[in-house]
Amino acid sequence: MKVCRRAHFNSAHRLYRPDWSDDKNNEVFGKCNNPNFHGHNYQLEVWVEGEIDPETGFVIDLKILKDIIKNEILERFDHRNLNVDCLEFKNLNPTAENIAVVCYDLLRAKLDEKYDISLKLWETENNIVEYAGR
Ligand code: NI
What's the topology of domain 2-8+40-131? Predict the structure, then answer.
């Protein structure tokens, strides 16, 4: 059984590698390399898979999952500049892929290992990544 909690956060970022030339950054990252940053309304889905607890009838109490997402993700990244404000991206390009990996690792550390977790992250309406530890 899989259950899901959705959340969203607004963050600014810039896709950029300091070890590349400006030309190469522009060629690979295009407008996302704007030096003055740009923002996204990120939509996150966190899926938790496990057995239904016969006592509660829940796979996981979604209120508990909501609080973990709030504490681990939203309080870190909502209304932040990922490149400038967030240590997680000090040396990591904040692509949707890398944001998903960081979010996964933060949540994985707080959830019982009896659960399999995966997440989907919408950077835009049409650009979506999914990560489940690989
Ligand atoms: Ni972007």
Answer: Tetrahydropterin Synthase; Chain A (3.30.479)
